[in-house]
Amino acid sequence: MGTRMAPSFACLFMSSLEECMLSTAPCRPLIWWRYIDDIFFIWTSDEDSLLTFINHINSFHSTIKFTSDYSHQQVNFLDVTVRKEHGSLSTDLYTKPTDTHQYLHSSSCHPRHCKSGIAYSQALRLRHICSNNSSFIRHTDALEKHLIARGHSARRIDSNEPSLKNPSSPTDDTPTYETFYVRAAVPPLTSNPTPIQHGTFKCDRTSRCIVCSHHIVESNSITSHSMQLTHKTKGHITCTTTNVIYLISCRVCGIQYVGETKTTLKKRFYGHRSTVNTMKTETPVGEHFNLPNHTINDMSLQGIESLGSRPDLVRISRERLWMQRLRTIQPYGLNIQEGHD
């Protein structure tokens, strides 16, 4: 079945993917719960927006796709059926049509305690799943018949047993840890710590830095040319900042381009300058700034968002988000389509 750490790797990947998918979704579910590759979520909007959301998560990754089963009344998740009843949610047991209930046979050579504990452990599972007592009794009666068919004695399950009547929460078994209090000296903070300045700034070598002297626009905000909306810059951004979303604007006509880079902003912008100088018109930036009455000095540069140590997938998803917010996808801007230079 593969390495033991495979589920952990899968969960780590899906956790990162989910963060990006949900942060860029036009409308989000009320709750989103996942167990490895099974997801349960509650949708409070209309069906059209639900289908839009499903299409969004299915178009987010080239190989990760989702199948969906939704209903206004009930849905199955793992071994649970969740129903909407009288304005609240109730849970009941769900078994697949192919389930043959092949419990361990009484003639098995397993130790006696393994076989004798089957009835109680399965009844306890039913107690945790069934929120309605009548459903619990119905399923325990069916469980008895399945166990008899497997050669076990007809010992009736007592639903009034305290542990089945009021089962303990799984959190009750959480081990307790002794707390140790350690006295340590923490250096005092200065009375007036300098707050972080958010915005785009020139570096301290402006006179020798081509990017800062000719292209960087110092500001604590960016404005969408096509929508005339202003957004605050997120983070302290200079030409040496890495893992950043940036905005290129044309000083002649105002058209804009959103990009992202893992390397320094300066290094990525040198790449854009190169496409203009070498007349690489197959790139949107190179094509635009080689138009008549346009020069390389008409390119202005601002930072949009500094992402610190966040992973590549987050940066790429944030680039898509800013393309939408600033409306820089053609014909309104220079971006060809989401996720492409």
UniProtKB/TrEMBL annotation:
It comes from the Eukaryota. Pfam families: HTH_animal. Residues 160-176 have a biased composition (Polar residues). This is GIY-YIG domain-containing protein. Transmembrane segments: none annotated. Keywords: Signal. The keyword Signal applies. Residues 1-20 form the signal peptide. The lineage of its organism: Eukaryota, Metazoa, Echinodermata, Eleutherozoa, Echinozoa. SUPFAM superfamilies: GIY-YIG endonuclease. PROSITE patterns: GIY_YIG. Residues 241-335 form the GIY-YIG domain. The keyword Signal applies. Residues 153-176 are annotated as: Disordered.
